[in-house]
Structures are given as C-alpha cells and as structure tokens.
Amino acid sequence: MTQISKISPISRRVVLKAGAVVTSCGFLPRAKSLLAQTPSEPHFFLQLYFQDSLDSSYLFDARPLAFTAAGKIQNYLGQDPSPWTGSNGGKALATSLTFDLKSYKDQFTVINGVHMATSFDGHEQNRNILLTGNPFGGESYLPHLNETSSSPTPLDYLQVGLMGGIEITNAASSVILRPSSAVSFSTTVQSNRDLKADDPVLAFLQGRMGSLAKGTGRFSEGSRRMLLGMEKSFGLAEKIKSADITLATGDKDLEKALKVAHQYFIKGISKAALITIDDKYLDTHGPKDAAKQPELYKTVVADINAVFTYLKSTPFDESRGLSLLDVTTVVIASEFGRTNYQEGKAMDQTGTDHDPLSNLFLMGGKGIKGGQVIGASDLDELDANGSYKGVSGAHHKLDGKLLKRMGKPFNFDTMELVKDTPEDYDGDHYITIASVVNSVYKLFGASPSHYWKNNRNGVPAKMLGGLLV
C-alpha cells in the first residue's frame, strides 16, 4: 500500500479544485498519484466466484463408475466420464455436463488439484485464503493488480455480490454494487450538483483535514489520504457519469453483472471485477441436495459458458479485431472442492463435505495459454481389491480417512505431475492458491514484494510459468 507520508504536501488550491465526489459519490477512494503516465495496452481482470464450493467430480475431475461401485465416490450423474486432453498433454476426466464448454476449450485452461488451506475446512477461512492468502484475512491481491499499472484506475476493483466472512484490509478503493445499484449510482452522480472550488463546504473539509493531517500517527495518515482522495474524486465522478449501463428486462443476473463490469472497464473506472454467483446451493452436505447435482451443475456450466460468450462477443477494439476477452484475464473458482462421500453412508445416500486439498480453477483470456490441463488429484487408482493405490504419506497425515482428493505433487520447471508419494507435506511441491495468485501477479507486473508464500518463513510460491503466454 502506498505510504502517504512519502507524498509531498498538496496545496489548498489543489484540494479545493478536487472535491466534487465528496458529496456526489459518497466515498473517498484510496490515494494514488495523478501524474500523467504513458498509456499501455488495456488489461482487465475478471474473477467469477461460485459461492460455497464446486464439486470438480461433476466437472473436470471425475471418476469412473467403477469407483462408485467400489464405494469410493458418489456419482448421481450415473455416467462414465470422458477424457479431456489438453494441448500440453495434460489429461482429466470430464463429465458430459462440461460438453457445452467444448467450443471454448482453446480459450481456457483447466487447473485441477489446487491446494487451499491445509488446516482449515471452513468456508470463511478458505474464502480468505482465496483472496488474501491468509485464513484470517489481510491484503487482497486484487488492488495490487492496479497499483503498478501505468494507467491506474480510480477504483481498484468492482465487487458484484457479497463474499461472506472475508476480511480484506486494503479495500478502500473498491466498491460493492448490485447491477441495478450501479445504474442508479451513475444517474445520481449525473444529477447531483458538483461543488465549486470556492464552495464553503469544501473549504471547511479541506481546513479540517489539513489540520488533522499534520501529525505522524495513523489518524493523520488517514486525513492525508482523504485529502488526496478529494483530488482524485473529480475525475472519478466524470467517469461514473459516462458509464452507459443498459439492463434489459430479460437479462439474467450474471449478464447484468457482466454489463456493469464491461462499462467500469472501458470507462476507466476499474481494472478488475469480482462477481459472486450466489443463486445456487452448492454446499451439498445432505444427500437430497447432493442428488440434485446433475441438474445443478448444468446451471454452473451455463454460467461459465455465459461468461466466455459475453466476453468473446463483446467488441473492445473493432479496428484491431479485439473482443473484451482478448483484453481480460478470467479466473473461475470457488473456495474449495468437495469430498468424495461422507463416511458411513451408502453411495446413493451420501452428501459431500468440504475439501480444501483439491480445488478446481479455470483460467483464460489475455495472457493465458488456453486449451491446457494442468495438475491432477490423487485417489484415482484402485487395485484388484478395490483399494486405493499410490496414496502418499502426506495425504494420510492430512486426511487419514481418505475422504478427500488431494492435488498431486507438481514439477513447476517441467509443468508436469510428479509420481512421488512424499511422506511429509511441503506446499512448495504442489500447486497451491499461492501458485495461482503469483501467476496472476506475474501477468499483471505486480511487485514481487506482494508474492504469496506457502510457508510464513519460506520463499514465494512458484508460479505456473507454462500457464502464461
């Protein structure tokens, strides 16, 4: 985060010229330098978050029906999966529910077996892990994608929908809006009266903040940030006024959210958007809920398909033949995966529980080599007696009852799976959420000082170099 104490003082005149959105927008963004910078090729970021966890066994990490017959994994779809082979030679087993995504196969890469928390199974802890790398929260990686940009936007990111339990400490330059609220927000800013430089309200605010900003403590630092926020708020108000968001009666919620993100991108309001899908019940602990998964995951696939369809069909620069997908990096995930079954339950009478040892990510768009399959989970081989083969000691220690799939060891230099079955766990030998985020950091040119570690006193987690163009 920018250290405000290192910024030179600003004049009263600068502040008085800057405060329109203090009253018209109702928030003061975190300060960033407004010095003229050389524009770079546009690069946006979209994260689609499925609330409550995705069961990858209904998508790209399925198991044959023989595993269900052996009492190893529930399968309410009742079909054998098919091979999904990546352009890199990586392989997965995909259910028939994914077939509607085949037309976009070259646009995204499947990443199986991503490790989230190894000590926490809760939703809140793993949501925090997903966005901050810490089960108890902290700095989100989304603002870091904006701060090193040659043309930073006033807002670091737009959030559509809520992610419960997330503790983010650097969200001052973010905004949470429903699509309808985004429309009314722009309308309100357009109709509100802009303050003039000599307005007594601004003079009063500037005087109070200026007095409070003279100290060296955190309160004074906050006051300095508010002053600089006033400086930037004029430009932000004008950008919000220019947003042309048209929501049609027949639009689904996701399409509305994408329309808002699109306008916030192209109008220079935000470089990133986090869209939460919360209209499904994916936390299928009960057998009745689990039995609905075949129909449920049809809607999941439909949402994923809708994202790529919208981005691919929405022009960004027609003169160069660029769509919105060509300038947007897309990440699709949830906070963790699901267990194979629940202990002591029959395969046709079981729900599923939380599995943070193997998560599914889909990544595509700008900067991503699409069409690949990277990583895999274990518990994928049975011997003649129907028992698992090749399970590591590390897995036994983290999940003694073998209810959870666990991502396999991975060689980041060759971008291939490792056949080792280590006795002890070392996150640096697996694809982790830190590996995924560091890959995004690399793609956006974020400072290496932000890179996540798998261990508090360790080195930054290795990125997925072969994932990036």
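That was protein one. Protein two is written in the same sequence-then-structure order:
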Amino acid sequence: MNQQQAFTPQVTLPGQAHTAEGPYDQTGMYLMHHAFRRDLDRFVSAIRNTPVGDTETWAALTRRWDRFDTVLHHHHTIEDEAFWPVLMAHADAAGRADDRATLEAMEAEHAVIDPALQSMRTGFAAMNEHPCTDHRNALDVRVTALREALVQHLHHEETEALPLVQATMTPQEWKAAESAAAKGYPPKLLPFLINWIAYDVPQDVLAKVIRDAGRAYTVLYRLTRRRFTTIDQKAFRYA
C-alpha cells in the first residue's frame, strides 16, 4: 500500500461495489460511476415506456443520450491515457502479472463498451427517422446489453483497478491524472456535467461536493440546476 500520505476518507454511494481506501480522494470517480449506473437504469426504463409515437420525447431522449455518450467516452479516454498506462508501468516494474491482467481487462472491457455506444447511436437514429415498435425493441435490447456490460465493468474497476490506484500511484502521478481528467471535458459541457453528477446523490455527499468544488462551480450549479432539471424531466418523462 502507498504509505506516502495518510488515508483519505472515501465516499460510498448507492450501487458502489467497493470502496478503495488509500491516500487519494476518489470521490470524483465514484460520483461518475454512480451517475453512469443511475442513467442507464433511467434509459432502460424510458426506452421501454416512452410511446412510439411521442416523437418530441424521443428527440429529447436522444439529445440526453448524446450527452451521456460524450461523458462516458471522455471518461474512458482519460482512464486509457492517464491511468491504466501508469498503473501498468508499476505492475511491470514490480513483476505483478495479476495486476497487469487486471489493467488489460480494463482496456478490453472498454473495447467492448465503445461499439455498444455506437450501436446505441444507430438505434436512436433509426427510432427518430422511423418510429416503430421494432426499432424501439431493438433499442431496448441494445441498451439492456450496454447496461449489463458497463455495470460489470464498473464492478470490476471498483474492486480491482481503483485499489491499484491507491496502492501504487505516486502523488505526482495522481496529480497528473487528475489534471488530465479535469482538462478532458470541453468547457461547454460543464453546466451539464456538474448537474448530471449531482443528480440523485445523497444530500450529505452532495453538500460536501458542493463545498469542495469552490465558489465558481457552486454558482454555476445553482444558476443552471433548474434548466437541467426541466430538460431531464422532459427526456425521462416516462421513465
């Protein structure tokens, strides 16, 4: 275990498979995972229950999916570029084949999820171009498969990969990875991202996140929360 810093209290959110104790505050990672799980449950429900003929809601749901897709793609890109290679270098230096196998599995699971995201884009396009039960059913199959794959991946990551972050990353490596994560999202996405992360988070955790985020993010959250809620309710009105 990395003993260069004292242990930092970690957050445990609904659905989280494991909490990796260690020196680095992984609240941001766990919040993202919580939001991915929550959203996929809502998308499964919305796709199954939104009437085929309600084209306005399908359009709103498609736009909301595009945001989810963008965030998940950026999240995986950051992990593939800023986290896994660093951890692999440590695994190789220590001769830990089991750690390398875990990290190779992370990359392989990302490689399964990316085509599933493309399949969802295709499914939503078909549903908007020609709304019908067959297209809705196909989209249901696709989103259910994606949810299963992503939930399994998040479980694997939380139980095996995130403990490696705590155990092997140096403070300098952690700072660099966090910096890459912060720069990985386009500024125009920030209002959505802040509200998306905060939605349905336990109040005690949300209060801490808002407090730690700083004044600029707190103000942005308060200014954009109502608009986010209105748009979200429109997309998920049948979920």
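Helices lie at 27-49, 55-94, 97-129, 133-168, 171-183, 190-198, 203-213, 215-235. Keep this in mind for the problem set.
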